[in-house]
Known about the structure:
By secondary structure, the protein is mainly alpha-helical. The chain has four helices and no strands. The protein is elongated.
Amino acid sequence: xxxxxxxxxxxxxxxxxxxxxxxxxxxxxxxxxxxxxxxxxxxxxxxxxxxxxxxxxxxxxxxxxxxxxxxxxxxxxxxxxxxxxxxxxxxxxxxxxxxxxxxxxxxxxxxxxxxxxxxxxxxxxxxxxxxxxxxxxxxxxxxxx
Length: 145
């Protein structure tokens, strides 16, 4: 996938996820307090970092070999989910922030990222066949028009 095509889903997913994350920070801050806001902010940063880096990695993996798109996509997505699971396990018993808001915000932002990435990819007009130049047409008399 050329790099200009990779930016379409990245922008289309990052902006709605950031908006939802800011809303989650505000709601968590109002409901749980400052620890809730810190947890939601940490979750938003984790999701944006993991999923944006995954999109960049997918672009790099498939730049020279686009036939590997499905395998690379599955590998990158599985790695992202496993790494988010590791982060959740590491912060399981932390007192730095509210872990419930952290987990719910990670889940919500990951779902929003995935949904909007699919939406942006489906709305993008990415050719699966590279259009070439138009063939030259000749008139009935055999001369160029």
